Amino acid sequence: MKLAEALQERADLNKKMDELRNRLNNCILVQEGEEPAEDPVMLLKELDEAAERLEVLMAAINLTNSRSKVDGMTLTQLIARKDALTVQLSAYRNLVYTAGQSTSRARGTEIKVKALLKASDLQKKADQLAKEIRRLDNLLQETNWKTKLIEL
After folding, report:
1. Together in a domain, 134 and 106
2. pLDDT tens-digit profile of 56-97?
3. Are 128 and 85 in contact, with CB atoms under 8 Å apart?
4. Is 53 in the same domain as 107?
5. Calpha distance 55→123 (Å, rounded)
6. What total of structural domains would you count in the chain?
């Protein structure tokens, strides 16, 4: 199994577990004398089985990410870099928005507010960050499809 397939299965299991939780919540309580729409015992069994598979998959994915290298970095390091850049990009985008705000004055005697950083400079940096995030994402996607999952 390729790493990308394991990541897809992990996402599917997370969705399935959410769905099972909702289905369990919908049938766990019934009016006395009524039957639930679904058997909660069977749903609980499915939830437990999905959780067991998810645990195995997550451990294998984490092991594979920590041992697989591309461009001299492990996949774990690349993911951490991408995540950190994403947080940084969000901060820059907020700064661009704030620096681009203009305050209007009704009278010349009101206090004038000006940005200490240029919105255009901040936007250039935000664009560079976004480009690097896209590059890392593409590299990770490509690597995920080429890397064999280390099974436990």
Report:
1. yes
2. 999 999 999 999 999 999 999 999 999 999 999 999 999 999
3. no
4. no
5. 41
6. 2
Pair 80, 12 in one domain: no
Predicted TM-score (pTM) of this structure: 0.84
Identify whether residues 13 and 83 lie together within a single domain.
Answer: no
> Is the distance from CB of 136 to CB of 81 less than 8 angstroms?
yes
Cα four-point dihedral sign 137, 13, 3, 61: positive
Residue 103: other Cβ atoms inside 10 A: 10
Residue 96 host element (H or E): helix 75-99
By the 10 Å C-beta count (0-12 exposed, 13-18 middle, 19+ buried), 101 is classed as: exposed
Distance in angstroms (rounded) separating the CA atoms of residues 86 and 122: 15
Q: Which domain holds residue 25?
A: 1-67
Task: State how far the Cα of 101 lies from the Cα of 95, in Å rounded to an integer.
Answer: 10
42, 97: one domain = no
